[in-house]
Structure formats: C-alpha cells, structure tokens
Predict the 3D structure of the following.
Amino acid sequence: MPGATLRSPRKRNRIRIIGATALAVGASLVLAACGSTKDDGASGAAGGGTGKVGVILPLLTSPFWQSYNDYVPKMAKSEGVDVLKTINSNSDPAQQITDINNELNQGVKGLVVAPLDSAAIEAGLDQAERKGVPVVAVDVAPDKGKVAMVVRANNVAYGEKACDYLGQHVKSGKVVQIMGDLASVNGRDRSEAFRSCASKKYPDLKVLEIPAKWESDTAASKLDTLLNANPDIKGIYMQAGGVYLAPTLQTLKSKSMLKPAGQPGHIAIVSNDGIPQEFDAIRKGEIDATVSQPADAYAKYGLYYIKAAMEGKTFEPGPTDHDSTIVKLPSGILEDQLPAPLVTKDNVDDPKLWGNTVK
C-alpha cells in the first residue's frame, strides 16, 4: 500500500549525484530520492553531515502526532541520524519559534519541523538560515523561508478524495466539512479542494463549513450548533481525524444521529489521518473512509532529507523510488509529495497500513 511500505536502503542506491563532491567520491556514492540530485557542499556547512538534529512537533494531543512522535526515534536509528528528544510546541505558533531558537542555541546541526502556521514559521526559518542550519519541514509547507525539503502528502488530493467519496455516496443534500486552521496551507488546501470539487462535480451537494482550527472543542461546539439548524445533514468531511473523530462521533451520538453504515439515517463520514481509531470506526460502520496520512514515512523521510541536507546534498523535481514525486512549489521550495491512500471497509485490514501497525 503506497505511503506505508518503505523501500530498503539498497533499493535507494540508484541515483547518481552530480557535482564536484560526487565526482571525487565516485559513482558508488548515490542518493535515494530523485533522479537528479546534486551535492552542494555549502548547504551543509553547519552540519558537515554529522551532528545533533532537533525535531519539533506541532502538538501531541492528536493520535496522529503521537504516532509520528513514536516513529521518530525508530526512523532516526534506521537512517543513522542523531536526534535530540522531540519538542512539542503545543499548538502555539509563537512557542514554535521559541522552540526553534532554543534548539539552535543548543547547537543542533539540523532541524525537522512540522510548522503550525505557514506564514509565522518564516521567523524561525530565518533564524536557522542565519546560523547555517538546514531545515526540513514536515506535513506543512511554509509560505516563505528557506527549507531543504518539505515532506508532505498532497493535501489537495485529500480534499478531492473526500469530496469524490461523499459525492458518489450521498448524491444530493447537505454535507459539512469540518476544516482545519486556515493559517496552515494544509487547512487551505483541503478546504478549497473539497469546496471546488463539490461545486464542479457534484452540484447537487450543498457544502456547509465549520472552521475549527484543529481544535476538538471548537469542532464539537460548532457541529452541535450546525446540526441543530440542519438536522438533515447527509455527509461529513473531517479534515483531521486525530482531533475531530471523537468529538464528531460524540456529538452525533448525543443527538441519536450516529447510525451504522447500511442503516437508514446513516451519515456518510470521510476523514483524514489514518489513525487506528479511524480504522476501528470504519470497522464498526461509524465512519466510512479516511485518507491515510503516512506518519511513518513523514518521520522516515523527514530524517532522511535532513541528513542529506547536512551532507550538502540537494534535489530536483521528479519521481522518487518510494512512490512519490518531488515538485517545486510556487514559492520555489521543493516538496516530496508522499502517497496517501483512501481507506474504506474494503482495505481497512491491510497490514501494510501504518495505522494497523500501532496500538
């Protein structure tokens, strides 16, 4: 299953590095991610390929980020990266900038950061650039600032997959998307993609929206209010199952609106994340589908790319050997768009899905 099965290090040794350093080392020096890789020694000046790496999390209240946090030390070992204990910014963009500065003051030679705010993170990225410390962004792309790579799934595809699923199963009527934080490119991408898809492909759907800022309490409160005014809701798209699954199911249950799939009155629900709790809900018929965001691959390739950056290696757009594609964003930043499969009752028990490998 794409996004969950990771290739062996031997598999990655296929790609020729271009540049003076590569020529000096010889053809045996290879890199995993892309067919056009360069070795620019200056970009790894701070690390020289070695040194401590700081890993900064956006929050730990979501099972998704808890799983990512658990994967970090495992993937650090497999990738040969010396990581410090992870730092939790606790959903506070200002705290995240402080966390970056604290890690830099500890002398880290590389940073892997999951930005909370696509714009605010620029201040932290500028601090790192001034100290010559490369940064890899995970899950969220910054609007501005220098990063060696963004490791992220295609969030536009998240919204489109959710829209297509609901459009094909609901046909007509009211559906609601519980949105993420629109200060994050993830929230913007998912929201606009769902909205645009519904408008163009499923005009008989009426989309209602709840801005919930990745906050479970906000989602529960606003969903309760919306259902009071619109008891005829037929579908729900939750942009983050890690924070929205429990409050959504609790709210529906409190109103006697949580009907199992296949029964009259069932509200079709599609989520994002791919956490074990979503898989259990699919098995119970409480929700219908989720897009599995690859927590394991986020940890693996976040550390892979920071190690490469510390060694002075850079990348160019193109397909990778781990079923993804590196693209250049409008900002000029490179992003490795990892695959994220749709999970339904038909494939929810697939042992290759990372959500089935954790408890």
In short: The chain has eleven helices and 19 strands.
